[in-house]
Predict the 3D structure of the following.
Amino acid sequence: MSAVAIIVAAGKGERFGGEVPKQFLPVGKRALIEFSLQEFSASPVIDSIIVVVPRGIPESLVNLIMTYRKVDAVVFGGKTRQESVEAGVRAVRGNPDVVLVHDGARPLVSGEIIERVYREAKKSGAAIPVVPIPDSVKRSEDGRVVDRSVPRETLFRAQTPQGVRFELLKRALEKAREEGVSCSDEAQLVELLGEKVSLVPGSRRNLKVTFPEDILSFKAFIGEYTGDFRVGIGYDAHRLVEGRPLYLGGIEIEFDRGLLGHSDGDCLLHALTDALLGAAGLGDIGKHFPPGDPSTEGIRSTEIVRHAVELLSGEGYRVVNADCVVVCEKPKIGPLSDKMRESIASLLGVSPEDVSVKGKTTEGMGFEGRGEGISSLAVVLVEKVPSGE
Ligand code: MG
């Protein structure tokens, strides 16, 4: 198994406008091209990656690209896509079975598509990922009136990576050069030789960022991941007293005493709230829920967490996961932890697998050990969701 990926990112992005070529636009804390770099680096079928960039890009971007695993070379591209692919091919070391050529402006390529293209190209010589065309398709010579409708079942949109056996790609590039032909993709190059190009399923997610509005579709697709993360930590402790129900993690627990507090005393949710607010730099629970405020007397702490989550979402943050510790001698937290995880997950808008609640004792030491109170710690990770501007 041996495949080289050539990621072509040499375009100046004229159709996109702006000063930064679209393939290097920052999305969260990453440049657009890093999304595909990540996917190719992680693919088990890829041995080596060559990235083709435009002349004059900042050295910091070259260094950033080189930090990705398997990147062997960063080379300068030419005036056309074909020239850029040729520059990439010249940098290929050894004799790989297949070369996969990918548009640097297609950030959402998946590992499945990479493997599918690789396997089919290895078997049949050349393969490209395609998607059906949802719109009706018309043919018009003058662009003013319809000459005829074209059955769209026979038409497909070609995506990348396009996979070609290395020797076939080299022959095709040579032939195109000899004949002075400029091809818009590798499939067309292979057609020049009269060789077959196989189709494999692509994906609508695997979009090409061409126009400014494409960034919005891209951001909608990656709603789940931007790389712009922040962590927060929280701690809280309350006294155990008789005559109060015990709330921990948003659930009521059968116990002979409860936690004393201005609210329901749920120190786990208070620690969690502080972690949330801290992650977003929004202060702490006392700032948003002053302990002397009569309007919040006896408030359920689930309301406090909900309020914090709302504040965070107003700032564009979403919770990724939370890890919590409850320190007490009794009650035993282990048997309750799944219920607490579910309760916390629903407050945070994540799944229970993204929440952990662990119980700890202190071997009789301290106020927790003597049963005078319960303390809690929480760490949360939040992520900034792209705002779409
Ligand atoms: Mg508290």
Q: What stands out?
A: The chain has two domains: 3-221, 229-384.
